[in-house]
Amino acid sequence: MKKTICFMIVISLCLCTFSVFAKGLDEIESGSVILIEQSSGTVLFEKNADAKRPIASVTKVMTALLLMEEIDKGNISYSDLITAGENAEDMGGSQIFLEVGEQMSVDDMLKGLMVASGNDVAVAIGEHIAGDYDSFIALMNKRAKELGMKNTHFVNPHGLPEDNHYSTARDVGIMSRELIEKHPDIKKYTTIWMDTLRGGEFQLANTNKLIATYKYATGLKTGFTTEAGHCLSASAEKDKMALISVILGGPSSEVRFSEARLLLDYGFDNYTLKEKISANDLICEVDLIKGKKERVNGVAKNDYVIMDNKNEKGEISKEIEIIPDIKAPVEKGQKLGVMKIKKGDSVMYELEIVAEEEVKHRNVFDVIKLYFLKWLGVK
Protein backbone atom coordinates (compact mmCIF):
# COMPACT_ATOMS: atom_id res chain seq x y z
CA MET A 1 0.00 0.00 0.00
CA LYS A 2 2.84 2.39 0.91
CA LYS A 3 4.54 1.74 -2.44
CA THR A 4 1.31 2.50 -4.31
CA ILE A 5 0.79 5.77 -2.43
CA CYS A 6 4.39 6.85 -3.04
CA PHE A 7 4.14 5.99 -6.74
CA MET A 8 1.00 8.11 -7.07
CA ILE A 9 2.76 11.00 -5.34
CA VAL A 10 5.67 10.70 -7.79
CA ILE A 11 3.32 10.71 -10.77
CA SER A 12 1.37 13.73 -9.48
CA LEU A 13 4.57 15.68 -8.88
CA CYS A 14 5.83 14.92 -12.36
CA LEU A 15 2.55 16.03 -13.94
CA CYS A 16 2.25 19.22 -11.87
CA THR A 17 3.26 22.48 -13.50
CA PHE A 18 3.25 26.04 -12.26
CA SER A 19 2.92 29.27 -14.11
CA VAL A 20 5.46 32.08 -13.97
CA PHE A 21 3.38 35.21 -13.93
CA ALA A 22 4.64 38.67 -14.75
CA LYS A 23 5.08 40.73 -11.60
CA GLY A 24 7.58 43.10 -10.08
CA LEU A 25 9.61 42.78 -6.90
CA ASP A 26 7.29 45.25 -5.18
CA GLU A 27 4.42 42.80 -5.75
CA ILE A 28 6.00 39.86 -3.93
CA GLU A 29 3.32 38.16 -1.82
CA SER A 30 5.45 35.86 0.36
CA GLY A 31 6.00 37.02 3.93
CA SER A 32 9.82 37.09 3.93
CA VAL A 33 12.29 36.83 1.07
CA ILE A 34 15.95 37.44 0.35
CA LEU A 35 18.23 37.15 -2.69
CA ILE A 36 21.97 36.74 -2.15
CA GLU A 37 25.05 36.18 -4.26
CA GLN A 38 26.26 32.76 -3.20
CA SER A 39 30.04 33.12 -2.96
CA SER A 40 29.98 36.30 -0.85
CA GLY A 41 26.54 36.49 0.71
CA THR A 42 26.02 39.95 -0.82
CA VAL A 43 22.33 40.83 -0.50
CA LEU A 44 20.74 41.87 -3.80
CA PHE A 45 17.15 42.13 -2.57
CA GLU A 46 15.27 41.57 0.66
CA LYS A 47 11.82 41.90 2.18
CA ASN A 48 11.20 41.28 5.91
CA ALA A 49 14.40 39.24 5.87
CA ASP A 50 14.83 39.30 9.66
CA ALA A 51 11.28 38.37 10.64
CA LYS A 52 11.25 35.19 12.75
CA ARG A 53 9.09 32.51 11.16
CA PRO A 54 8.63 28.73 11.12
CA ILE A 55 10.54 27.33 8.14
CA ALA A 56 9.14 23.80 7.85
CA SER A 57 11.39 21.34 5.99
CA VAL A 58 13.87 24.03 4.97
CA THR A 59 15.20 23.09 8.43
CA LYS A 60 16.78 20.09 6.69
CA VAL A 61 19.37 22.38 5.13
CA MET A 62 21.05 22.45 8.55
CA THR A 63 20.68 18.68 8.95
CA ALA A 64 22.31 18.20 5.55
CA LEU A 65 25.05 20.72 6.36
CA LEU A 66 26.06 18.87 9.53
CA LEU A 67 26.14 15.58 7.64
CA MET A 68 28.22 17.00 4.78
CA GLU A 69 30.66 18.50 7.28
CA GLU A 70 31.16 15.08 8.85
CA ILE A 71 31.67 13.53 5.41
CA ASP A 72 34.20 16.16 4.39
CA LYS A 73 36.06 15.71 7.69
CA GLY A 74 36.34 12.00 6.93
CA ASN A 75 34.28 10.98 9.97
CA ILE A 76 31.48 9.55 7.81
CA SER A 77 31.55 8.10 4.29
CA TYR A 78 28.82 7.82 1.68
CA SER A 79 28.92 4.04 1.94
CA ASP A 80 28.42 3.96 5.72
CA LEU A 81 25.15 2.42 6.86
CA ILE A 82 22.70 4.35 9.03
CA THR A 83 20.33 2.30 11.16
CA ALA A 84 16.84 3.69 11.74
CA GLY A 85 15.62 3.81 15.33
CA GLU A 86 12.20 4.15 16.92
CA ASN A 87 12.22 7.95 16.69
CA ALA A 88 12.70 7.75 12.93
CA GLU A 89 9.96 5.15 12.43
CA ASP A 90 7.49 7.18 14.47
CA MET A 91 7.84 10.33 12.37
CA GLY A 92 4.87 11.67 10.46
CA GLY A 93 4.60 14.00 7.49
CA SER A 94 6.76 13.45 4.42
CA GLN A 95 8.83 10.31 4.83
CA ILE A 96 10.35 7.28 3.13
CA PHE A 97 8.78 4.96 5.75
CA LEU A 98 11.90 3.79 7.55
CA GLU A 99 11.36 0.88 9.92
CA VAL A 100 13.21 0.19 13.17
CA GLY A 101 16.44 -1.62 12.42
CA GLU A 102 16.37 -0.83 8.69
CA GLN A 103 19.78 0.11 7.37
CA MET A 104 20.42 2.47 4.49
CA SER A 105 23.63 3.97 3.13
CA VAL A 106 24.49 7.63 3.72
CA ASP A 107 24.25 8.06 -0.04
CA ASP A 108 20.65 6.83 -0.08
CA MET A 109 19.80 8.74 3.09
CA LEU A 110 20.89 11.97 1.40
CA LYS A 111 18.52 11.17 -1.48
CA GLY A 112 15.74 10.57 1.01
CA LEU A 113 16.51 13.83 2.79
CA MET A 114 17.09 16.25 -0.08
CA VAL A 115 14.85 14.75 -2.78
CA ALA A 116 11.93 13.26 -0.84
CA SER A 117 12.25 15.52 2.23
CA GLY A 118 11.96 12.55 4.57
CA ASN A 119 11.32 13.57 8.18
CA ASP A 120 12.24 10.06 9.27
CA VAL A 121 15.50 10.37 7.35
CA ALA A 122 16.36 13.63 9.13
CA VAL A 123 15.92 11.94 12.51
CA ALA A 124 17.98 8.90 11.52
CA ILE A 125 20.80 11.10 10.20
CA GLY A 126 20.81 13.28 13.31
CA GLU A 127 20.95 10.33 15.69
CA HIS A 128 23.73 8.74 13.63
CA ILE A 129 25.85 11.91 13.77
CA ALA A 130 25.35 12.89 17.42
CA GLY A 131 24.41 9.61 19.07
CA ASP A 132 20.98 10.71 20.21
CA TYR A 133 18.19 13.08 19.22
CA ASP A 134 18.71 15.83 21.80
CA SER A 135 22.46 15.98 21.21
CA PHE A 136 21.87 16.57 17.52
CA ILE A 137 19.48 19.45 18.22
CA ALA A 138 22.15 21.02 20.44
CA LEU A 139 24.64 20.57 17.60
CA MET A 140 22.26 22.29 15.16
CA ASN A 141 21.91 25.32 17.42
CA LYS A 142 25.64 25.47 18.11
CA ARG A 143 26.40 25.48 14.38
CA ALA A 144 23.75 28.15 13.74
CA LYS A 145 25.40 30.38 16.32
CA GLU A 146 28.84 29.80 14.76
CA LEU A 147 27.49 30.82 11.36
CA GLY A 148 26.05 34.06 12.72
CA MET A 149 22.42 32.99 12.41
CA LYS A 150 21.24 35.48 15.03
CA ASN A 151 17.50 34.85 14.79
CA THR A 152 17.30 31.07 14.59
CA HIS A 153 16.44 28.34 17.07
CA PHE A 154 16.00 24.68 16.24
CA VAL A 155 13.91 22.19 18.20
CA ASN A 156 13.98 19.32 15.69
CA PRO A 157 15.95 18.24 12.60
CA HIS A 158 13.02 18.15 10.17
CA GLY A 159 10.84 21.27 10.61
CA LEU A 160 7.51 19.85 11.74
CA PRO A 161 5.69 22.41 13.91
CA GLU A 162 6.99 22.78 17.45
CA ASP A 163 7.13 25.74 19.80
CA ASN A 164 10.30 27.83 19.66
CA HIS A 165 11.41 26.41 16.29
CA TYR A 166 12.06 29.33 13.95
CA SER A 167 14.45 31.11 11.62
CA THR A 168 14.49 34.03 9.16
CA ALA A 169 15.00 34.44 5.44
CA ARG A 170 18.43 35.95 6.11
CA ASP A 171 19.50 33.09 8.36
CA VAL A 172 18.21 30.48 5.92
CA GLY A 173 20.31 32.21 3.27
CA ILE A 174 23.36 31.95 5.53
CA MET A 175 23.04 28.22 6.14
CA SER A 176 22.06 27.53 2.51
CA ARG A 177 25.15 29.38 1.32
CA GLU A 178 27.35 27.46 3.76
CA LEU A 179 25.97 24.15 2.53
CA ILE A 180 26.19 24.64 -1.22
CA GLU A 181 29.28 26.88 -1.31
CA LYS A 182 31.46 24.87 1.10
CA HIS A 183 30.08 21.44 0.20
CA PRO A 184 29.31 21.49 -3.55
CA ASP A 185 28.91 17.70 -3.63
CA ILE A 186 25.45 18.25 -2.16
CA LYS A 187 24.37 19.26 -5.67
CA LYS A 188 24.62 15.60 -6.68
CA TYR A 189 21.50 15.15 -4.56
CA THR A 190 19.73 18.50 -4.81
CA THR A 191 19.68 18.32 -8.64
CA ILE A 192 18.05 14.88 -8.79
CA TRP A 193 14.57 15.09 -10.28
CA MET A 194 13.55 11.43 -10.06
CA ASP A 195 15.24 8.39 -8.54
CA THR A 196 14.52 5.28 -6.51
CA LEU A 197 15.50 3.66 -3.22
CA ARG A 198 15.46 0.08 -1.94
CA GLY A 199 16.57 -1.43 -5.22
CA GLY A 200 13.99 0.43 -7.29
CA GLU A 201 11.04 -0.40 -5.04
CA PHE A 202 10.55 3.11 -3.64
CA GLN A 203 10.00 5.99 -6.07
CA LEU A 204 11.46 9.45 -5.45
CA ALA A 205 10.53 12.76 -7.05
CA ASN A 206 12.08 16.05 -6.01
CA THR A 207 9.78 18.35 -4.07
CA ASN A 208 11.64 21.30 -5.66
CA LYS A 209 9.92 21.72 -9.03
CA LEU A 210 12.51 24.26 -10.16
CA ILE A 211 14.88 21.35 -10.76
CA ALA A 212 12.66 20.25 -13.64
CA THR A 213 11.47 23.66 -14.87
CA TYR A 214 14.30 26.19 -14.33
CA LYS A 215 17.41 25.26 -16.28
CA TYR A 216 19.81 27.12 -13.98
CA ALA A 217 18.55 25.47 -10.77
CA THR A 218 21.01 23.63 -8.52
CA GLY A 219 18.81 23.07 -5.46
CA LEU A 220 18.07 23.42 -2.66
CA LYS A 221 15.16 22.64 -0.29
CA THR A 222 11.40 23.09 -0.02
CA GLY A 223 9.18 23.17 3.02
CA PHE A 224 5.50 23.39 3.88
CA THR A 225 3.33 23.30 6.97
CA THR A 226 0.12 25.17 7.67
CA GLU A 227 1.97 27.31 10.21
CA ALA A 228 4.98 28.06 7.99
CA GLY A 229 3.23 28.38 4.66
CA HIS A 230 5.09 27.45 1.48
CA CYS A 231 8.86 27.84 1.90
CA LEU A 232 11.84 27.39 -0.38
CA SER A 233 15.57 27.93 -0.47
CA ALA A 234 16.38 27.97 -4.20
CA SER A 235 19.89 28.00 -5.63
CA ALA A 236 20.90 28.53 -9.26
CA GLU A 237 23.99 29.16 -11.40
CA LYS A 238 24.31 31.11 -14.64
CA ASP A 239 27.28 32.67 -16.42
CA LYS A 240 29.70 31.86 -13.57
CA MET A 241 27.46 33.56 -11.03
CA ALA A 242 25.55 31.67 -8.33
CA LEU A 243 22.51 33.00 -6.46
CA ILE A 244 20.29 31.85 -3.62
CA SER A 245 16.71 33.06 -3.20
CA VAL A 246 14.81 32.28 -0.01
CA ILE A 247 11.02 32.34 0.18
CA LEU A 248 9.26 32.01 3.56
CA GLY A 249 5.55 32.20 4.16
CA GLY A 250 4.46 31.82 0.55
CA PRO A 251 0.67 31.80 0.12
CA SER A 252 0.76 28.85 -2.28
CA SER A 253 3.18 26.42 -3.84
CA GLU A 254 2.78 28.15 -7.21
CA VAL A 255 3.65 31.55 -5.72
CA ARG A 256 6.61 30.11 -3.85
CA PHE A 257 8.24 28.78 -7.03
CA SER A 258 7.24 31.77 -9.15
CA GLU A 259 8.66 34.29 -6.73
CA ALA A 260 11.88 32.32 -6.28
CA ARG A 261 12.28 32.31 -10.04
CA LEU A 262 11.41 36.02 -10.20
CA LEU A 263 14.19 36.80 -7.71
CA LEU A 264 16.74 34.62 -9.47
CA ASP A 265 15.94 36.13 -12.87
CA TYR A 266 16.20 39.61 -11.35
CA GLY A 267 19.67 38.81 -10.04
CA PHE A 268 20.94 37.25 -13.26
CA ASP A 269 19.42 39.99 -15.45
CA ASN A 270 20.62 42.97 -13.43
CA TYR A 271 23.97 42.01 -11.94
CA THR A 272 27.31 40.75 -13.18
CA LEU A 273 30.10 39.35 -11.06
CA LYS A 274 33.17 41.47 -11.75
CA GLU A 275 35.78 40.18 -9.34
CA LYS A 276 36.16 37.87 -6.36
CA ILE A 277 38.49 39.00 -3.59
CA SER A 278 39.38 36.38 -1.02
CA ALA A 279 40.54 36.93 2.55
CA ASN A 280 44.35 37.22 2.66
CA ASP A 281 44.64 38.22 -1.01
CA LEU A 282 47.52 40.69 -1.44
CA ILE A 283 46.23 44.23 -1.94
CA CYS A 284 49.40 46.31 -1.56
CA GLU A 285 52.70 46.71 0.29
CA VAL A 286 52.69 49.15 3.20
CA ASP A 287 55.75 51.07 4.42
CA LEU A 288 56.53 50.88 8.14
CA ILE A 289 58.44 53.19 10.44
CA LYS A 290 61.11 51.60 12.65
CA GLY A 291 60.14 48.02 11.88
CA LYS A 292 62.45 45.01 11.62
CA LYS A 293 61.13 44.99 8.05
CA GLU A 294 60.67 48.21 6.10
CA ARG A 295 57.30 47.14 4.73
CA VAL A 296 54.59 44.58 5.25
CA ASN A 297 52.04 43.03 2.91
CA GLY A 298 48.58 44.51 3.24
CA VAL A 299 45.96 41.80 2.60
CA ALA A 300 42.18 41.66 2.42
CA LYS A 301 40.60 41.05 5.82
CA ASN A 302 37.63 39.18 4.39
CA ASP A 303 36.08 37.78 1.23
CA TYR A 304 34.27 40.18 -1.04
CA VAL A 305 32.69 39.89 -4.45
CA ILE A 306 32.45 42.99 -6.61
CA MET A 307 28.98 42.98 -8.15
CA ASP A 308 28.03 45.42 -10.90
CA ASN A 309 24.44 46.60 -11.15
CA LYS A 310 23.88 46.98 -14.88
CA ASN A 311 21.23 49.64 -14.33
CA GLU A 312 23.51 52.04 -12.46
CA LYS A 313 25.73 54.42 -14.39
CA GLY A 314 29.44 54.71 -13.75
CA GLU A 315 32.55 52.58 -13.90
CA ILE A 316 33.72 50.37 -11.06
CA SER A 317 37.05 51.43 -9.58
CA LYS A 318 39.22 50.65 -6.55
CA GLU A 319 40.84 53.32 -4.38
CA ILE A 320 43.39 52.39 -1.68
CA GLU A 321 43.74 54.56 1.43
CA ILE A 322 46.54 53.63 3.86
CA ILE A 323 46.78 54.96 7.41
CA PRO A 324 49.67 57.47 7.38
CA ASP A 325 52.94 56.93 9.31
CA ILE A 326 52.36 53.40 10.57
CA LYS A 327 54.95 52.58 13.21
CA ALA A 328 56.19 49.18 14.31
CA PRO A 329 55.41 47.02 16.12
CA VAL A 330 52.54 45.82 13.93
CA GLU A 331 50.32 42.90 14.88
CA LYS A 332 49.20 40.26 12.39
CA GLY A 333 45.74 41.29 11.25
CA GLN A 334 46.19 44.90 12.33
CA LYS A 335 44.26 47.39 10.22
CA LEU A 336 46.50 49.25 7.77
CA GLY A 337 43.87 50.99 5.69
CA VAL A 338 40.94 50.36 3.37
CA MET A 339 40.29 49.69 -0.29
CA LYS A 340 37.20 51.56 -1.44
CA ILE A 341 35.17 49.82 -4.14
CA LYS A 342 33.43 52.58 -6.07
CA LYS A 343 30.78 52.83 -8.75
CA GLY A 344 31.32 56.20 -10.32
CA ASP A 345 31.64 58.58 -7.37
CA SER A 346 29.69 56.38 -4.94
CA VAL A 347 31.44 54.03 -2.52
CA MET A 348 29.90 50.56 -2.73
CA TYR A 349 32.07 48.92 -0.06
CA GLU A 350 35.14 49.53 2.07
CA LEU A 351 37.33 46.44 2.26
CA GLU A 352 39.64 46.52 5.26
CA ILE A 353 43.35 46.03 4.55
CA VAL A 354 45.26 44.27 7.35
CA ALA A 355 48.84 43.19 8.03
CA GLU A 356 49.71 39.74 6.69
CA GLU A 357 52.21 39.11 9.49
CA GLU A 358 53.62 40.52 12.71
CA VAL A 359 56.49 43.00 12.37
CA LYS A 360 58.39 43.89 15.54
CA HIS A 361 60.04 47.19 16.39
CA ARG A 362 63.65 47.34 15.22
CA ASN A 363 66.47 47.55 17.77
CA VAL A 364 69.99 48.93 17.39
CA PHE A 365 71.28 45.69 15.92
CA ASP A 366 68.50 45.71 13.32
CA VAL A 367 69.49 49.26 12.34
CA ILE A 368 73.15 48.26 11.94
CA LYS A 369 72.16 45.21 9.91
CA LEU A 370 69.88 47.29 7.70
CA TYR A 371 72.55 49.88 6.92
CA PHE A 372 75.11 47.13 6.30
CA LEU A 373 72.83 45.40 3.81
CA LYS A 374 72.15 48.70 2.06
CA TRP A 375 75.89 49.36 1.90
CA LEU A 376 76.36 45.96 0.27
CA GLY A 377 73.58 46.79 -2.18
CA VAL A 378 71.37 43.97 -0.92
CA LYS A 379 68.69 46.39 0.25
Low-confidence segments, ≥5 residues, pLDDT <50?
A: 1-21
Biggest sheet character: 5 strands, antiparallel
Strand runs, count? 16
Helix-strand sequence: HEEHEHEHHHHHEEHEEEHEEEEEEEH
- Regarding quaternary structure, what we see is single chain
Approximate strand percentage: 25-35%
Radius of gyration: 25 Å
Helix segment tally: 11
- Spatial strand sequence of the major β-sheet: 2-1-9-8-7
- Structural class estimated from helices and strands: alpha+beta
| Proportion of helical residues | 25-40%
Mean pLDDT: 92
Question: Terminal Cα separation, in Å?
Answer: 83 Å
What's the shape?
globular
Summarize the structure.
This protein is an alpha+beta fold and 379 residues long. The chain has helices at 2-15, 60-73, 86-89, 106-114, 119-130, 133-146, 169-182, 187-190, 210-213, 253-270, 364-376; strands at residues 32-37, 43-47, 81-83, 103-105, 194-197, 202-205, 217-225, 229-238, 241-250, 271-277, 282-287, 295-300, 304-309, 316-322, 335-343, 346-355.
